[in-house]
Specification:
- The chain has 3 helices and 9 strands, in the order βββββααβββαβ.
- It is α+β, with helices and mostly antiparallel strands and about 160 residues long.
- The chain has a single domain, classed as Gcn5-related N-acetyltransferase (GNAT) (Aminopeptidase, 3-Layer(aba) Sandwich), CATH 3.40.630.30.
- It has a 6-stranded mixed beta sheet with strand order 3-4-6-7-8-9. Strands 1-2-5 form a 3-stranded antiparallel beta sheet.
- A hairpin with a 2-residue loop joins strand 6 and strand 7.
- Helix 1 packs across helix 2.
- The longest helix has 13 residues.
- The chain is globular, with a radius of gyration of 15 Å.
- The N terminus is likely disordered.
Length: about 160
């Protein structure tokens, strides 16, 4: 399943239908959307604001990351993008959560937890959810129900 271009360079729409849910959070009303057309520059700015390490200087690469993910859920406070979960999944056995980013000024308000909850809901109980954690987030993920595993292997990227 590929992504459909939405007409603006650097913007992509998920192959699934767009869903839009507004949820009251401690920080005010947060709108969660699955399949929102996201602008690469806006996502790169969120990555920078969240502390996640991604190649934010390379907007074509960020656009490709969005284009090839098949599950993207965004969180907005008004028009401001405050969080995103980007995943690759077959919706039947495995889901790799490749990005979970929440702007630093709204971290600890439940946005990341809600993004993960929505990913889990969308992939269903038959799919495992896995991720690679940044060293500084190793204590966060167990609080969301993730368990640490020792049976993984990695081939690091060269660029």
């Amino acid at each position: 399943m590929g992504r459909r271009r939405s007409g603006r360079a650097g913007r992509y729409r998920s192959p699934v239908s767009e869903r839009d849910d507004a949820v009251p959070e401690p920080l005010g009303l947060v709108t969660y959307r699955e399949g929102e057309a996201l602008d690469a520059a806006e996502v790169a700015a969120l990555f920078d604001a969240s502390g996640i390490r991604r190649p934010t200087h390379d907007l074509p690469r960020i656009a490709a990351m969005l284009a090839h993910a098949n599950l993207v859920i965004s969180a907005r406070q008004g028009e401001r993008l405050i969080g995103v979960a980007r995943a690759l999944t077959d919706f039947s056995y495995c889901c790799y959560l490749s990005d979970l980013a929440v702007a630093r000024d709204v971290q600890r308000a439940g946005v990341g937890r809600e993004l993960v909850r929505r990913v889990r809901e969308r992939i269903g109980p038959q799919s495992m959810l896995l991720l690679l954690s940044a060293p500084e987030a190793m204590e966060y993920y167990p609080r969301l129900g993730f368990e640490r595993v020792d049976n993984a292997f990695l081939v690091r990227r060269t660029t």
